[in-house]
TrEMBL record:
Residues 51-95 form a coiled coil. The keyword rRNA processing does not apply. InterPro entries: RNA_pol_sigma_r3/r4-like (IPR013324), UPF0122 (IPR007394), UPF0122_fam_protein (IPR054831), WH-like_DNA-bd_sf (IPR036388). Might take part in the signal recognition particle (SRP) pathway. This is inferred from the conservation of its genetic proximity to ftsY/ffh. May be a regulatory protein. This is UPF0122 protein SAMN04488500_106266. Keywords: Coiled coil. Belongs to the UPF0122 family. CDD domains: Sigma70_r4.
């Protein structure tokens, strides 16, 4: 169960970064299968192809996403940057209250926190 959930999360993350680089059919199949939770048979009916054809399209699309990530590393970089941002915020929040009340530091903390919240949507 965890393995399947991890796969769905991984494909979803890579899809967010690289879906524009896929063919229309690959993008549609991934969207239908992983985001809309349609079965292979339902997708096959939608496209007028066999379940095996859908399976092949999905596997190739997943492989393509992984290849893009291996070459470009956008998802890994995004994840690393979010972790670093969270660590910076945590460090700033641990400063003594007298230091945190400095206007520029307080504004920086607010902006960093807002940036971390905004990136959760990607």
């Amino acid at each position: 169960m965890d393995r399947m959930l991890n796969k769905v999360l991984r494909v979803g993350q890579l899809y967010d970064f690289y879906n524009a680089l896929l063919t229309d059919k690959q993008r549609d199949c991934l969207n239908m299968h992983y985001l809309q939770d349609l079965s292979l048979a339902e997708i096959a009916d939608e496209f007028g192809v066999t379940r095996q054809a859908v399976h092949d399209i999905l596997r190739r699309a997943e492989q393509t996403l992984e290849e893009y990530e291996e070459k470009l590393g956008l998802a890994a970089r995004y994840s690393d940057e979010r972790k670093l941002l969270a660590e910076i915020i945590e460090s700033l929040e641990q400063l003594p209250p007298s230091v945190r009340q400095l206007p520029k530091l307080d504004q920086a903390l607010i902006k960093l926190s807002s940036l971390l919240e905004d990136t959760r949507e990607v």
